[in-house]
Write a structure and sequence with these properties.
Elements lengths: L1 H18 L14 H9 L4 H12 L5 H18 L2 H16 L7 H19 L2 H17 L4 H13 L8 H12 L7 H17 L3 H12 L6 H17 L1
Amino acid sequence: MRKISALLLALLLTLSMLSAYTDSFSSFSERPGYIELIDAVKNNEEENAADELYRTYMAQELTMCEKARIEYHMARYYKDKGNTEEAKRHVELGKEYLAAIEESEGELFYRTAQADIVSADYYVNGGISKGMESSDLMKELYKDYPDEYYIALQEAFRLLYTPAIAGGSSRKALSILNDIEKEMDGLSKLDLFSFYSAKGMALSQRDEYDESDSYLDKAESIYTGDPAIEDIRKDNRRGRRNSR
């Protein structure tokens, strides 16, 4: 009986370990200046301030994956600022860094950088084919690395932004987010913001407007400059009016 109990306990522990989320990208945030740059970008600070932080950060000896990740954020930042030309320049820089990634950096890092840059390209330049490529890359990445915080969160966003006819699903996105919510201790500051934003968006799509707003409040307690948050709040206000 004791042997059976011990075996069951070992099995439960093994299953628990298998289901645990990890953050293989945590070392990125340990670089000097990374947190300050991301804070400036996500709080939508002035371009001069963000650009100076960007130049300081990029002057370090970084991996090509680290450089590509920053170009993803900078491209989206400048697009949201309305500076499309500068956004396009950062997309092209991201492509250059992606092409220079060495095999030693690993498949996970290369494929994530690839998905990021294609996503940034679609965000900045549009195009149906680019959007489909971005969606396919993330779907395959999540299939292979479902327990990476960053990848799971990006898959949730993919499901939320993809039309239902093309495979989008707020129900599936919520399932991923609810799993993450059970293991939030390992979330970085940026991923925590992404989690709250995604959960707010998913709940909005499920017509749970008050709960959605509560998650958006949590997101904005971390970063205040993401225009998508106000778009979701507008959807919530519209949904409340239509449900009366």
